[in-house]
Amino acid sequence: MANPSNDRSGPNRLRTAAPANVSVRRARRPLAARLQGWRHAHGDGFAASIRRLAARPWATLLTVLVIGIALALPLLFHVILDNARQLSAGLREARDVTVFLELTVDARGADAYASELGRRDDVEKIVVRTPEQGLAEFRQLSGFSEALDVLNGNPLPSVLVVTPRVSAGGDDAAALLADLEADSRTALVQYDAAWRKRLSALLGFGERAMLALMGLLAVATLLIIGNTVRMDIQGRSEEIAVLQLIGANDAFVRRPFLYIGMAYGLLGAVLALLAVGAFEWTVAAPAAQLLESYRHRFALTGFGLREAIVVLAAGAALGWLGAWIASTGHLRAGRGGR
């Protein structure tokens, strides 16, 4: 007689012997559960990193100060260069030729010379400034009106402000300049093209130097943060070994140190922005006097909200990268030694 239990064992085995399907069902956790686990893991890593920084305030402060100084230098260079670019914008756009005539050329001769130049194809516009107009402008801008009253006469010559016509090939007034300098009625020809070229080259050099400085100090920031995190990792090497023995993966071990690096970079960026703000506040009074002398033709600019956000993000990214390099190198070295 057949055993009934043997007859019922077939369906029971089919229902229970499905470990692969059970493992698949367990692996497919709901999205909310996975997000909750991710949030808890990163929250624990962030809290552990903050506790680690708070446990050694002086060491953290010194590291943040070094990072802040390293980040503040290129930011200050950027602010100075940006304001210099704005201040020189008018000079780089000006293309007028200032012609100082001989003192023997009177107003009628200056008008005749201007009419003669106005018929040239390479001249766009001419403005005649009489000696009286020049003296009045000098009296207004120089602040030496009382000293000018003692003069017996007007020592200023007539001036022609010539605007060359821009050709298809660019701003090239070589022929016009040669004719103006060769004319016997001309005492001095002042053309700012050479100064504009030098200024553009100087600003281009400054921009390239600023980028090089940013790159060097970014590498220095990486080294500072990486070395600090590496020392922290070495101090916790036994703890890391225990975590790895109980099954902690590299991401779990690395996570607190990444948050420590991000905190270093973010705090250093905040300190750098404060240093730039202190610099702007220090030079505010002399800058106001400078603007007044220029009749407020330009305004000094500093860091806006967008630039500040970029600096904070860059500092956090540098901190994360430096910590990742240090922690990954330690983990790889540990695997190689086993």
SSE inventory with pairings:
Elements: H1 4-16, H2 19-27, H3 31-54, H4 57-87, H5 89-93, E1 97-101, H6 107-118, E2 123-129, H7 131-142, H8 145-148, E3 159-164, H9 174-182, E4 186-191, H10 193-235, H11 237-245, H12 250-282, H13 284-293, H14 305-337
Antiparallel strand pairs: 1-3, 1-4, 2-3
Description:
The chain starts with a helix and ends with a helix. It has helices spanning 4-16, 19-27, 31-54, 57-87, 89-93, 107-118, 131-142, 145-148, 174-182, 193-235, 237-245, 250-282, 284-293, 305-337; strands at residues 97-101, 123-129, 159-164, 186-191. It contains 14 helices and four strands. It has a four-stranded antiparallel β-sheet with strand order 2-3-1-4. Helix 4 (57-87) packs antiparallel against helix 10 (193-235) and helix 4 (57-87) packs across helix 12. It has two domains: 43-89 and 198-337, no CATH class; 95-191, 2-Layer Sandwich (Alpha-Beta Plaits). The model is unreliable at 1-26 (pLDDT under 50). By secondary structure, the protein is α+β, with helices and mostly antiparallel strands.
Largest sheet: 4 strands, antiparallel
Mean pLDDT: 76
Radius of gyration: 37 Å
Sequence of strands across the biggest β-sheet: 2-3-1-4
The rounded distance between the terminal residues' Cα atoms is 61 Å
Helical amount: over 70%
Structural class based on helices, strands and sheet pairing: alpha+beta
The total domain count is: 2
Strand content: 5-15%
Apparent shape: elongated
Give start-end ranges of low-pLDDT stretches: 1-26
Number of strands: 4
SSE order, as H and E? Answer: HHHHHEHEHHEHEHHHHH
Number of helical segments with 4 or more residues: 14
